[in-house]
Specification:
Elements (H helix, E strand, L loop, with lengths): L2 E11 L4 E11 L2 E6 L13 E4 L4 E4 L1 E6 L11 H4 L5 E7 L7 H7 L7 E7 L19 H11 L3 E8 L1 H4 L5 H13 L3 E5 L6 H7 L5 E3 L18 H9 L2 E2 L10 H9 L23 H11 L3 H6 L3 H6 L16 E14 L5 E17 L2 E6 L5
Parallel strand pairs: 1-4, 1-5, 6-7, 7-8, 8-9, 9-10, 10-11, 11-12
Antiparallel strand pairs: 1-2, 2-3, 5-13, 13-14, 14-15
The structure holds zinc ion.
């Protein structure tokens, strides 16, 4: 049994009505036991608790990064805890590193051994991201193998993933994405589609997506993106949003443009979800971690509350992650403790543009629970 009392932080979990008010949180046996304006250390409930001082810091539900690559045997992959706990996220979704042929190995050798909670978006290609051109041959989409994997491991697979980029689909063009959408709708799982270089065209991709599907890299700066030549939102994106399609940042090494995001915000087309696309080529910059991506989004005009919601309760709801993503009594005791610190810095995006930061989110502690155990990771100097 372990009791933790997090004292004096500014609680942020908009879905639970916490918008920065100071409060105390007590965790007992890996669960959130009590949230009050004040919980005395001497109180019966908190007796024997380890006290964590969070004065001057934000206390949010453990951050959820819905786009990382944490299957080390796949292209660009790193260990789940390197991209999860050590980067301030208690839960991550691996976005398509594994497919039907490799998920079992990913699960046994990495997911089950990590301290970070890892869910998978299973690649529709049976090989996942082993080589990097996973949809250039129709043989690589094996519906039967995919369904068998889903039936066996449905608890750990919360959706499907397909990459719609010229380098991935080769001569196949739009066909693999159309198949991916068809399969996802048949098995009733959300499909996350990576959008990038033509072909296939973004408009075509958007037209086959439906409620709950996610477009990641939605604000990339490549040709044929979400903006028209004159800087308006393409009608297909507006129609897709009206159908319930969600738009995710997915920063990545070449997939987020501050200028595109700012223009989209100005047009009233905000993102629904915020993620990093962390992998071996960007985790030491320019992406670093989810908090750093949130700092850029906030500098572009996103509110702190929205930024937290889009990385906690919104992804938990979207992907059916039970008892995660909220500051709610009875939920799993996962927390991110950060400071919103004043600064005077430039932050760069994935296309070489920059933005001035007057404040940024600095990681302090990540608290994560499994079963009845809670652990604390201290981020030294924000890392
Ligand atoms: Zn990715």
């Amino acid at each position: 049994m372990r009791k933790l009392l997090i004292k004096g932080g500014s609680l942020i979990s908009p879905v639970n009505g916490f918008r920065g008010e100071q409060g105390d949180v007590l965790a007992v046996d890996g669960r959130i036991a009590l949230i009050r304006d004040r919980i005395e250390e001497e109180s019966r409930e908190a007796e024997g608790a380890e006290v964590i001082h969070a004065e001057g810091c934000l206390v949010t539900p453990g951050l959820i990064d819905i786009h990382v690559h944490c299957y080390p045997k796949a292209f660009l992959g790193l260990d789940p805890d390197v991209l999860g706990i050590r980067r301030g996220c208690t839960t991550v979704l691996d976005a398509g590193s594994s497919g039907a042929d490799t998920y079992e190995d990913f699960r046994e050798n990495y997911i089950e051994k990590s301290r970070t909670k890892v869910f998978a978006l299973l690649n529709v290609s049976r090989e996942g991201l082993l080589r990097g051109h996973e949809l250039d041959d129709p043989e690589k989409i094996d519906r039967r193998a995919l369904k068998e994997t889903l039936d066996r491991y449905g608890d750990g697979i919360v959706g499907l993933k397909a990459r719609a980029s010229a380098s991935v689909v080769g001569e196949m063009g739009f066909a693999p994405i159309e198949m991916a959408a068809e399969i996802a709708h048949e098995v009733k799982r959300p499909l996350m589609v990576h959008v990038g270089n033509y072909p296939p065209a973004l408009t075509q991709v958007l037209n086959v997506l439906d409620r709950g599907d996610v477009v990641t890299h939605a604000f990339h700066g490549k040709k044929g993106g979400i903006l028209t030549e004159d800087g308006r939102i393409i009608p297909e994106a507006i129609q897709a949003r009206d159908r319930g399609v969600l738009f995710d940042v997915g920063h990545g090494v070449a997939s987020f443009s501050l200028r595109v995001f700012e223009k989209a915000l100005k047009e009233g087309f905000d993102c629904d979800l915020i993620s990093t696309d962390l992998h071996v080529e960007n985790y030491e910059g320019p992406v670093y971690n989810l908090a750093a991506v949130l700092s850029k989004a906030i500098a572009c005009g996103e509110t702190l509350e929205d930024a937290v919601e889009k990385t906690t309760s919104a992804p938990a709801r979207q992907f059916g992650l039970k008892e995660l993503g909220e500051l709610r009594e009875g939920y799993i005791a996962d927390f991110s403790i950060m400071e919103l610190a004043p600064c005077d810095e430039e932050a760069v995006d994935a296309v070489g543009d920059s933005i001035h930061l007057e404040k940024k989110l600095v990681l302090k502690k990540t608290i994560y629970s499994r079963g009845e155990e809670s652990e604390i990771f201290d981020h030294i100097a924000g890392k």
